[in-house]
Amino acid sequence: MALQSLLQQGGPVMVVLFGMSIVGLAIVLFKIVQFAKLSLNSRGFIDTSLELLEAGKTKEAKAALAGQKHPVARVMESALDAGLDPLMDRESTDAEVGRIGSREVQNMESLLRGLSTIANLSPLLGLLGTVLGMIEAFMDMEGAGAKVDPSVLSGGIWEALLTTAVGLAIAIPSMGAYLFFEGVVDRAKGLMKDSAVRVLGLCRQQQSWKKNVAEVKQRGV
Q1: Chain segment 25-84, per-residue pLDDT in tens
Q2: 48 within some domain
Q3: Where are the bilayer-spanning segments (predicted)?
Q4: What is the rounded end-to-end Cα distance, in angstroms, of the chain?
Q5: Rounded to whole angstroms, how far apart are CA atoms 221 and 204?
């Protein structure tokens, strides 16, 4: 069935559904490209930077994070800078790391709400188109009186049901894509939290160690 014929038979609702399908596809393609650029499957840098930090090689740990596009790297950088800053207390450090983490999560979640909206609204719009089509078909049947042609009635019904089928065809892959992307974001959020806690723990150990060394030197003097 040609696209033009499909739009004509489905009516205005079909035009709206077609527009939503284009927007949904654009969002899916955008998120695929965005997540690919962020290299979300690359996680080796986490252990590398943590090992360098544990060995006291702070500059090397920062360098290992600086070359990464993964959002976890940005959170770890924030945790490293804040954790080693003697002027920042625990509360300020946690707030700063949380701020950077929220920013990265918002970036990953951008447009996902739009995809969820399309997945939820498209079957309802399809049902609306079907109801309007059925109303029109029965109005035509009433106007025909005793000269009702069953083929005309059945044709009007299947044309009405067409919008429901199209709405479901848009909703199912849209919801599947939304759930997939949401899962990717959730895994990244968990990795952010775990990595930030580990970095802050190592930073606080170093700060505590430096403080103890300074106290020993002061007593020795």
Answers
A1: 999 999 999 999 998 888 888 988 988 888 888 888 888 888 889 999 999 999 988 888
A2: yes
A3: 12-33, 111-135, 155-181
A4: 91
A5: 26
Q: Closest by alpha carbon to 130, among 158, 96, 108, 102?
A: 158
Give me the count of residues in the chain: 221
Does a structural domain hold residue 146? no
- Helix, strand, coil percentages (3-state) for the chain, rounded to 5, are 90, 0, 10
- For residue 195, give Cα distances in angstroms to 13, 61, 120, 201: 48, 13, 35, 10
Q: Which of 180, 21, 50 is nearest to 108 (CA)?
A: 180
pLDDT per residue as tens digits for the range 5-21: 666 666 788 888 999 99
- As for how many domains the chain has, the answer is 1
For the stretch 72-112, pLDDT in tens is: 999 999 998 888 887 888 888 889 999 999 999 999 999 99
Q: Is 32 helix (H, G, I), strand (E, B) or coil?
A: helix
What residues make up the domain containing 58?
11-115+174-215
Please name which of 59, 57, 101, 55 lies closest in space to residue 78, comparing C-alpha atoms: 101
Residue 23 included in any domain: yes
The CA R_g of the chain, rounded to the nearest whole Å, is 29
